[in-house]
Amino acid sequence: MLAAPEIRRGFLNVFFLSLLCTSGLIAQNVSAQELIFPVFARTEILLNPNIDPMFSDVDAFHSEFQIINPNPSAVRVTFHVFDTAGNEVLPLGSKPISRIVDPNAIAGGIGFRFPQRAVVGWVKAVSTQPVVIQEEISHSQDHDRPGPPSTLLKSRIVKWPAKLTRRAVIRVRFVPAESFGGDLLVFENTGVSIVFPSSISGLSTRGILLLRDQIGAKFGQREISISPNGQVVQNLTELFPEVNRAFSGTLDITFDNDVYATAIQIKVGLGQEAMDEPNNGAIP
């Protein structure tokens, strides 16, 4: 069983505030030379901050990538990581992670290490030729030291790059947390991530988030602005604090520039957690 404080720390404080996953395939898995993943996470949150970090397990979210090179020649793929403010974050080695993939080959398990414990944001993957890339995000409880390393996998999700759009719609749902004996029995929330990749300094984009209930009635509306290369990533109840009881409906997202918008559904039931993709998509 998963303790309620651990779930809230791992999901609400880390996942929803700092990471949300990608949406569907680009043109039904058509390869491309620049792909955007609106979510990236490499976080290690101490489960017991009151003891020596060497002896504390960590609640961790890890992003890893797999590449398929369908070309008759080798390709180089470089991963640029940006934080929510739009600043590029460099891993250990002080340069972006880059991989050369042989002709018609697969390269997997491409992970990242950073000097800091928590890096969250989004990724731009740039390839010298069209490739196919997917991302796996895992949530685990890790124990590295001292002694043999161990990992308790709690949930995982495999995602594809997001589609560029000015409008998207997302199925959203919230179920308040219920606990018993310190264990979180039931909880559900939708996390939303919107990324505005742009290298034009000073060019922000503005958008409207329109929340409707499941019969289509307007429930709330919010205007937001995203700076160049910036990101908005929050859960449903942070975007709309008026959602303070069980809720089911849709979120309609409209922007004045092209963005990448996606969502992930976090579920906990009887102590078991899952990460699923809600029904969502770009609107032409």
Primary descriptors:
single chain; about 280 residues; mainly beta; eight-stranded antiparallel beta sheet; seven-stranded antiparallel beta sheet; 15 strands; about 5% helix; globular; disordered N terminus
Describe it.
The chain is mainly beta and 284 residues long. Helices cover 7% and strands 58% of the residues. The protein contains 2 helices and 15 strands. The strands form 2 sheets. Strands 8, 9, 10, 11, 12, 13, 14 and 15 form an 8-stranded antiparallel beta sheet that branches. Strands 1, 2, 3, 4, 5, 6 and 7 form a 7-stranded antiparallel beta sheet that branches. The longest helix has 15 residues, at 4-18. The chain starts with a helix and ends with a strand. The model is unreliable at 1-31 (pLDDT under 50).
Structural topology:
Elements: H1 4-18, E1 32-46, E2 58-68, E3 75-82, E4 97-101, E5 106-110, E6 118-143, E7 150-159, E8 164-180, E9 183-196, E10 205-213, E11 218-226, E12 230-235, H2 236-239, E13 247-269, E14 272-276, E15 280-282
Antiparallel strand pairs: 1-2, 1-6, 2-5, 2-6, 3-4, 3-6, 6-7, 8-9, 8-13, 8-15, 9-12, 9-13, 10-11, 10-13, 13-14
